[in-house]
Amino acid sequence: MLLTDLKQKLDSFPHVNLLWGATPIVRAENLSKETGVELYIKRDDLTGLALGGNKTRKLEFIMGEALDKRCDTVITAGAVHSNHALQTAAAAKKLGLDAVLVLRGKEENKGNLLMDRIIDAEIRVYDAETSRELKSYMEEIADELAEKGKKPLIIPVGGSNPTGVLGYLKAAAEIVEQSNSMGLDFDYVVSPSSSGGTQTGILLGLKILKPKIKALGIGVGDPRDELLNDVATLIKETAKILNIDEGIVSRDELEACTIDGYGFGGYGTIVKEVIDLIKYIARQEGFYLDPVYTGKSFYGLMDMIRKQVIPQDSKVLFVHTGGLGGVFQYEDIIADML
Ligand code: 5PA
Fold first, then answer.
1. Cα separation of 160 and 57, whole Å?
2. Tens digits of per-residue pLDDT, 84-115?
3. Separation of CA 46 and ligand 1 centre (Å)
């Protein structure tokens, strides 16, 4: 499919503007010299909403749907450190909607949770092991609000539904457009993957526009089977709303480009190896990774380069998906590891 056709198709879905514009692609000069690959960073941490990050892109389409359906409230879920929850609250407030955040974990007024409170989102914290378990609480709250005459929209964890994926299809189009104008031919585009929407959008978008680029999603500690199944379902459902072949990405291809082994004991665990990498990257390049998503996946990227799974001289784009709030959410643990 042509770039203009995909863009036109995406424009036909209800959407709002939340991004400042295209996010920059910046060459990581020192790391390129050190690693022997040409390393570039897509600064999606600079999207402009709240603390920035990948959810802004998904929310452009999800909030478009909320307004289109005349909803007055959005409900979403995640861990207390959820970047997605904060981004959702900020988007909702800016558009005049209420936001209910269904969260799990230690309730401390720090990091993203503090930011959620500053923006006056309604926060309900539950005892749950995983964010998936929060779905039934979101449904109860939606019923409760509907009984009061409100019109809520439930947004799944991470905004990872086909509507949210459209945001990362648009990002893939943006990457192709920028790389064309910069005269860069990327071999790899690498991103963290947790609820799967970001990986799906990039994978599908590049498959449609530039299938020779390998789109790698690096897991950050969620069980591999869950992630693979989530991404497979998202690919199918998104292909359906785009009216393209649902089998566009085979299971084998999906397994090959979903990387694990860098979860460091599971989702949300903060480990010294990753903190050391965050320190190193900040000193080399002057930008910060986060301890839950970008730090772990960047560790994976560096390891794959070291092991030459990603060959020398490759042109690699890492998508920095944001998450800075996580540094402050876990400031005590991180400070102890410095
Ligand atoms: C998140 C997710 P996906 O969920 O689309 O796979 O994106 C992974 C990801 N980077 C990458 C950052 C900074 C993220 O926050 N965050 C979740 C959240 O609740 O914030 C969905 C888990």
1. 11
2. 999 999 999 999 999 999 999 999 999 999 99
3. 15
Pseudo-torsion of CA 328, 105, 159, 117, nearest 10°?
-60
Rounded Cα gap, residues 125 and 108, in angstroms: 11
Each residue of 276-326: pLDDT tens digit?
Answer: 999 999 999 999 999 999 999 999 999 999 999 999 999 999 999 999 999
> Do 303 and 262 form a contact (C-beta atoms < 8 A)?
yes
**Annotation says 314 is catalytic:** no
b (16+ CB within 10 A) / e for 262-272: bbbeebbebbe
CB of 54 shorter than 6 A to ligand 1: yes
Find the 180 Cα to ligand 1 centroid distance in Å.
28
Is residue 297 within 6 Å of ligand 1 at its C-beta?
no
Q: Which residues contact 262 (CB under 8 A, 6 or more apart)?
A: 218, 219, 220, 296, 297, 299, 300, 303
Domains delineated in the chain = 3-53+161-337 (3.40.50.1100), 55-159 (3.40.50.1100)
CB 266 within 8 A of CB 296: no
Q: Relative to the CA of 58, which ligand 1 atom is closest?
A: 5
Specify the DSSP element, H or E, that contains 32. Answer: helix 29-35
Spot the catalytic one: 32, 82, 136, 179.
82
